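Hey L., structure's done. Input below.
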Amino acid sequence: MAGDYVDVPEDVVARVRALCLRLPDAYEEKAWAGVRWMVRKRTFAHVLGVEDGNPRAYARAAGTAGPVLVVTFRVQGPELEALRHVGHPFFVARWGRDVVGMVIDDGTDWDDLGDLLTESYCVMAPQKLVALVDRPDP
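Output:
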């Protein structure tokens, strides 16, 4: 069934890759759909396409049958509450208490996405790696 999912365009993968692989010990792997970035076997970013309502969980969470590209990541604290209520391009995933998604389109602010992915990494990484990260100001 994974073959039914939308391939993520290489230019989008390359942009997300550049944001993720600058982080200590981060690595990339092909996911069941799309591509994910991990630290110590823990996913901190996942980009994939939604089309014709599939994958269903992502289509429901994003509120669209697609076609659309989305990235999911982890968020905690006040930023989580803010993103839960801001609306498009953000959406709350229905799995994990701190998983948020974002639609990637022509209006994507890649600097903001970089900050969000850095914070997601810091949620998932061990503290000794987090200490090496230059984090954005709150």
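Residues 110-124 form the longest helix (15 residues). Residues 8 and 126 are 29 Å apart (CA to CA).

-- N.
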